[in-house]
Design brief:
By secondary structure, the chain is an alpha+beta fold. The chain is 42% helix and 23% strand. It contains 7 helices and 11 strands. The strands form 3 sheets. The chain has a 4-stranded antiparallel sheet. It has a 4-stranded antiparallel sheet with strand order 2-7-4-5.
């Protein structure tokens, strides 16, 4: 499929701007686990996802991670072009959680569009607002919601994303998403298992009682 079918405001750009995007954007496919952006050390440009899944997260000085948000088909990855946005003052890491195919809009092309295209500038502002909302929601969850409720919500979200109740995910990975220690995750999952909500095996968390998890999470 052509880039025009995935770029949300393509039809609002001028013919010259559309032609520039088509000519200068690069298509790329990366395997799961690929590091795409590492704070201010990288500036790939704007990423437009055709398929797959990306994870944006922060890492503390101690090496602890917390997921800010994820990106899926047709999403725009804005922070991979953070080098041309002076308002971005924190380092976000972006990795591929699954094999991902995307277009790269180079930084200079993106910058020119931001300067000359009102629809593009407005769209980027909308994305910034959405990401800010995502981060504020995360902060509220961490500050005001107990870990058992957050973990229940995370397992339900994973199940919805993967389309299965059998989640092939380690305690380490869950801890990385949630910004906590593996031991904390393991202890809570064992409690969930004792209550009949999940079944644990090596590298797998199987949801056994979705209703109990939903009630616990407050969904």
């Amino acid at each position: 499929m052509d880039l025009s079918e995935y770029f949300p405001i393509f039809d609002k750009l001028t013919a010259d701007e559309q032609d520039q995007l088509r000519r200068l954007s690069m298509r790329r496919t990366v395997p799961s686990g690929t590091l795409l952006h590492n704070g201010d050390k990288d500036c790939m440009g704007l990423l437009l996802l055709r398929s797959g899944q990306l994870r944006a997260y922060l890492t503390s000085d101690e090496g602890r991670e917390v997921t800010l948000y994820r990106l899926f088909e047709r999403d725009i990855c804005l922070f991979s072009a953070s080098c041309i946005m002076n308002s971005i003052q924190f380092d976000i890491t972006i990795t591929a959680e699954k094999e991902t195919e995307f277009w790269i809009i180079p930084p200079d092309v993106f910058k020119k569009l931001m300067e000359t295209s009102a629809p593009m500038a407005n769209y980027v502002s909308q994305i910034m607002g959405t990401r800010f909302t995502d981060v504020m929601w995360l902060i509220e969850q961490i500050m005001w919601k107990s870990f058992d409720k957050r973990l229940a919500g995370f397992l339900l979200e994973e199940s919805a994303i993967e389309g299965t109740k059998v989640l092939k995910i380690t305690h380490d990975i869950i801890a990385g998403h949630m910004g906590t220690a593996r031991e904390v995750v393991t202890r809570m999952l064992r409690y969930f298992q004792a209550e009949g909500m999940v079944k644990l095996s090596r590298g797998v968390v199987e949801i056994m009682d979705e209703e109990m998890l939903e009630e616990l999470s407050g969904k």
